DNA sequence: TTGAAAGCGTTACCAC
DNA sequence: GTGGTAACGCTTTCAA
């Protein structure tokens, strides 16, 4: 192991402006300008340099660029627990859209636990241009750091307690819309399977639902705590299946699609028919329970769930989240802004239809902004 | 908007070595040394500088450091589709362990689609020290870039076709172990629900299972294509539930826990009892079907699934993946290495037990290395 | 149209 | 113990 023999490939140093300049017999300024498309470089020189760069596989050093005082192009990302199937979907969309805008995501945290100091420091050390947060629990910590260092922060699918920019779906309105749909379907006994008590998202959905019911003179028959997991939905479903048919609710709102899918599984396992049963093309089994959810994750929309749910305008949510962040990078003094996007009611077969309604249609102005 | 009035907070520039040096009345070398704990700085000076740095919220500029020729501390991360519940779990573990080692993850890609050129370039532009890949489809592209630029690359839960370092669970052995378990339980008609045909992971699991059966003189009764989704598991379950009890397999191996959970849901919805039925504490219902999975994701281990499955040693997989990567950063000429970790058989209640076996136990040497 | 040089924040080497 | 200085790769004046 002491032999200084070269490895298989001589490990050539990576190309830099200097190395290209020397190869081309020009100055590094010229190379820099040529590669950035500066107008005052002669076509001949440019071609020569371009060719050289391509051959060498030159990639500009983003770190050196940043040092000059420009943007780093890095966005800090803080993710909450990933059990909720909405978040993996959000992640995919976010990575794609960030890339389209030439931004890279620095993954600072994922999961339930809290962030250690070193990670929080990384946000500063790597000169992130901004920060995106989807976690319910962590924002306070990271928000403080961002605020103290002029790092813009935007929350996605969350609303900050005190301040901060955020984009999220109109949760209360969605809950209300679902209540309307179920009421129109002639349901009479309503239940809610709630989510995490500390997320504005869950609370708003439930509140919107319950208040709309109340406005129509209907009170909730029962309520279950579901947490954020499919497992929680199953537990609630088991309890509902165990109720005597007379007491059993005929319509259940699970505040997230994960919950709703677990709920449906439990009902089916308990031989309780769900919604306009999958078999019977609209012909509803006796004692069927209607289930509605919220989020519109792909797995919930398709069979075997065919969930009636509010579909979050995921692309628009992410797009506006990045818009907000970029705007705050331009102008750090921009006031806090809250963007609320209306979801779309997707009508599946997990809930009885109002007379005359058709399955599969989507209602509502997807992505229209309010607030 | 033309008023040049200062924003709420005067947006003080971030502290640097220079600003601290001026404040402390010393040179930047001294500040640098003091903050890095260099021995030859007088205690008094150090205290003064530490205090100043703390007050200013100083964070060293990782980009400037990297420019000096050191490590960037950045690891490029390429994630495949996130529907498989194993990947969100892997992501959480990876972020945590990377942070422990002082590494940050630059999220380059997530999802099914292919990577665009700009993203691939980012890998070079941000001077990543190495690259981690969990995707089945993308590696060839990114592998080429890494190989051409001396960026070490390690695959997690995947084995590269040609070359590259990788760490993954012993898939074939796990499949074989499950076959043994089911054979010992007295099952006679076996089925497999396969995964993506282009992932070594799925193929190895299935092969290990089938070959062990063959070695015991048993042939597969039937096989289903499940893809990588829970939905695929459900579809297979529906078809199994629809079979006449005589033809129906009495043991099914779904090559991933997501598949297995979907499968169980479908069986239960079809009133087909699963394993040592949840109700009957070991008392098995007539015509019960045993289901086993692979991965050991948290949701599958707990009720309502209580899946018998091979638990991947997730912590160890991630740890060894980072080990491999760090080793290759030290010595870029290190030969390709393949680390295979044995999983643990977790015995739940989704499959009939061999006579005398106990539920809940875990068997096997978790994380022992082979190859 | 091109080149030289300053400077971004840091570390390391060499003086003092 | 501490200070000066060069260097990392790049962009951007300012000169020519």
TrEMBL record, chains A, B:
Entries under Pfam families matching the protein: LacI (PF00356), Peripla_BP_3 (PF13377)
Q: Which residues form a coiled coil?
A: none
Instruction: Identify the residues that the record assigns to the HTH lacI-type domain, covering every copy.
Output: 15-69
Give the record's keywords alphabetically.
Answer: DNA-binding, Transcription, Transcription regulation
Q: Which GO terms describe its molecular function?
A: DNA-binding transcription factor activity; transcription cis-regulatory region binding
Write down the InterPro entries for this protein, in alphabetical order. HTH_LacI, LacI/GalR-like_sensor, Lambda_DNA-bd_dom_sf, Peripla_BP_I
Q: Which PANTHER family match?
A: HTH-TYPE TRANSCRIPTIONAL REGULATOR GALS, LACI-RELATED TRANSCRIPTIONAL REPRESSOR
Name the chain's protein.
LacI family DNA-binding transcriptional regulator
């Amino acid at each position: 192991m002491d032999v200084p023999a070269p490895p298989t490939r001589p490990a050539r140093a990576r190309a830099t402006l200097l190395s290209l300049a020397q190869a081309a017999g020009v100055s590094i300024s010229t190379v820099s300008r040529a590669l950035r498309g500066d107008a005052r470089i002669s076509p001949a020189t440019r071609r020569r340099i371009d060719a050289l760069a391509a051959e060498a596989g030159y990639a500009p050093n983003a770190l050196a660029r940043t040092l000059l005082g420009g943007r780093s192009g890095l966005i800090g990302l803080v993710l909450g627990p990933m059990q909720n199937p909405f978040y993996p979907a959000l992640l995919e969309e976010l990575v794609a859209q960030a890339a389209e805008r030439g931004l890279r995501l620095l993954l600072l945290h994922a999961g339930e636990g809290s962030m250690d100091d070193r990670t929080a420091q990384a946000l500063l050390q790597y000169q992130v241009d901004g920060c995106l947060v989807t976690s319910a629990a962590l924002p306070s910590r990271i928000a403080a750091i961002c605020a103290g260092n002029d790092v813009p922060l935007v929350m996605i699918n969350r609303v900050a307690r005190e301040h901060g920019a955020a984009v999220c779906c109109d949760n209360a309105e969605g809950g209300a819309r679902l209540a309307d749909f179920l009421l129109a379907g002639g349901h009479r006994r309503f239940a809610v399977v709630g989510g995490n008590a500390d997320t504005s998202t869950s609370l708003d959905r439930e509140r919107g639902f319950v208040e709309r019911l109340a406005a129509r003179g209907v009170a909730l028959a029962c309520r279950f705590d579901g947490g954020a997991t499919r497992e929680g939905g199953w537990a609630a479903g088991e309890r509902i299946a165990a109720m005597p048919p007379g007491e059993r609710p005929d319509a259940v709102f699970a505040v997230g699609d994960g919950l709703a899918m677990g709920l449906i599984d439990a009902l089916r396992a308990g031989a309780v028919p769900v919604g306009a049963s999958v078999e019977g093309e609209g012909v509803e089994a006796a004692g069927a329970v209607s289930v509605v959810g919220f989020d519109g994750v792909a797995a919930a929309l398709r069979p075997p769930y065919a969930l009636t749910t509010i579909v979050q305008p995921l692309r628009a949510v992410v797009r506006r989240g990045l818009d907000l962040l970029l705007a705050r990078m331009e102008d750090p003094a921009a006031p806090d802004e809250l963007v609320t996007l209306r979801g779309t009611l997707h009508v599946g077969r997990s809930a009885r239809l109002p007379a005359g309604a058709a399955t599969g249609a989507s209602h509502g102005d997807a992505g229209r902004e309010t607030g």
